[in-house]
Design brief:
By secondary structure, the chain is α+β, with helices and mostly antiparallel strands. It is built from 13 helices and 18 strands. It has a seven-stranded mixed β-sheet, sandwiched between helices.
Length: 463
């Protein structure tokens, strides 16, 4: 299915950066053992391979190099020292760039069905995996292990389209930094220079100014499994066949307004009712019902956790600029029992109530982020079945334009690792919400049936 046209490594311009390092904060090192983040952008491109090689390949190489000049950690490596809390020098993990470091960039073409991949209907998950770039494997250097942080694959569907696949280690950055990087890259690709990007005032802020107790570093660096990070450490990968399928559910503004109105009537004292909260709650309740419909995972009193992360750049004291580089997100957790999510008429209400309350408390209680950090870090590491959220409708992913038009479809293959969902602004209208679902194929069919039947019924019209 995949024909590799070229493999190369893209460095920043010579002598533009030199040797630099960036310490990890506990916001970063909390993700040391997390699976990589994968994104794929699909674009219409009705041109042959020759045109792709002559025009697109040079443009992307040049613009990526210039972008890395400003976002040097993307070209660097994660440096992990053995036993960071017990070694004589006590070195913590860091991101390090040395002259000559580079991003692995692959250009390929494939014969997959482009129109099928960009649909909203159920599609086999494994069909997307050839479009996902792998991170290089760790290597041992002197007294530490180096782990590549970022890779790119650009795949041509001749005379049909292009996909741009991105993979990053979560220690590198969160969604805000990744979107800032993409904005810079697309601006440079379209204009051939970084002048407009620099003038926009969007240069990354690298200062490590967040103040927090050292004990938080110790918790993150003492996670079970950290001691296994050596040159033999295998990063998680999405490879091979799987029984999972993915689909995209679009909740229009009309759908969302109807759900919000119903929740406001059912729960008049609930303080936090947003488009994001009701969309997540609705999908969460439908996932629980779909699992029950196919007879999976019995035990109504078992806990099932829902987790999203909240951007704390503007919420911590003192606040950080939105261009702060790295991770700066804290978890919002809620954990009802499964039985409360399965009730036919109250499952959505329960999900909206517990998630809305958790979001409200997380956002309002700014002091708790640092004050209670040890508690929520330990909770985040508990082995409880969890549905997480990747993405945010705050960022318009469909506006990511390298110069040949806006994206036709955006996918987040990394939700295949653990059954999370992706939530983004819709391509057709930013007021609509597009939710990516990845489930075993039989359960996905049940989810689609349940979610559509409930949206099309008149139940949520009732007070």
């Amino acid at each position: 299915m995949l024909n590799v046209l070229e493999k190369c490594r893209i460095s920043p311009p010579p002598a533009a950066i030199g040797d630099r390092s960036l310490p990890l904060t506990f916001f970063d090192s909390a993700w040391l053992l997390f699976f990589p983040i994968h994104q794929i952008f699909f674009y219409e491109f009705p041109h042959p391979t020759s045109y792709f090689l002559e025009t697109i390949v040079p443009k992307l190489k040049h613009s990526l190099s210039i972008t890395l000049q400003h976002f040097f950690p993307f070209a660097g490596n994660l440096i992990v020292f053995p036993n960071p809390n017990r070694s004589p020098n006590g070195k913590r993990p860091e991101i390090r760039h040395v002259e000559g470091d580079a991003v692995a960039l692959t250009f390929a073409e494939c014969d997959l069905d482009f129109d099928d991949l960009i649909g909203n209907h159920p599609r086999e998950c494994h069909k997307f995996y050839p479009l996902v770039p792998l991170l290089g494997q760790p290597s041992k250097v002197s007294n530490h292990v180096t782990i590549p942080l970022f890779s790119v694959q650009v795949t041509l569907f001749p005379n049909k389209g292009i996909s741009i696949g991105l993979t990053n280690h979560h220690c590198l950055c969160d969604a805000t930094t990744r979107f800032n990087f993409l904005n810079a890259w697309t601006s440079i690709a379209k204009h051939g220079t970084d002048e407009l990007f620099i003038a926009s005032g969007s240069l990354p802020f690298y200062e490590r100014v967040i103040k927090y107790p050292e004990s938080l570093d110790e918790i993150c660096c003492n996670q079970p499994g950290i001691e296994t990070i050596d040159e033999e450490y295998k990063l998680p990968q999405l490879v091979g066949d799987t029984d999972k399928a993915r689909a995209t559910l679009v909740l229009t503004q009309a759908h969302i307004n109807r759900l919000k109105k119903w929740i406001s009537v059912q729960l008049p004292t609930l303080e936090y009712v947003s488009s994001f909260s009701v969309a997540c709650a609705y999908v969460w309740s439908c996932i629980a019902k779909s699992r029950a419909r196919i007879g999976g995972q019995a035990g109504d009193d078992d806990l099932e956790r829902f987790l999203c992360v909240v951007d704390w750049r503007s919420r911590i004291h003192p606040p950080l600029p939105q261009t702060y580089f790295g991770n700066c997100v804290g978890p919002c957790l809620c954990t009802p029992t499964k039985s409360t999510l399965l009730a036919s008429n109250t499952g959505f209400r329960t999900a909206a109530e517990v998630f809305g309350k958790a979001l409200s408390e997380t956002i309002k209680n700014k002091d708790a982020l640092m004050k209670d950090a040890e508690t929520w870090l330990e909770k985040a590491y508990e082995p409880v079945p969890t549905i997480g959220v990747s993405g945010t409708p705050k960022y318009k992913v469909y506006d990511v334009d390298f110069g040949w038009g806006k994206a036709k479809k955006h996918e987040t293959p990394s939700i295949d690792y653990n059954g999370s969902i992706s939530v983004n602004a819709c391509k057709d209208s930013p007021a609509d919400i597009e939710i990516g679902i990845s489930l075993p194929a039989k359960q996905l069919d049940a989810f689609i049936s349940i979610s559509r039947d409930e949206l099309e019924s008149n139940f949520y019209e009732q007070a």
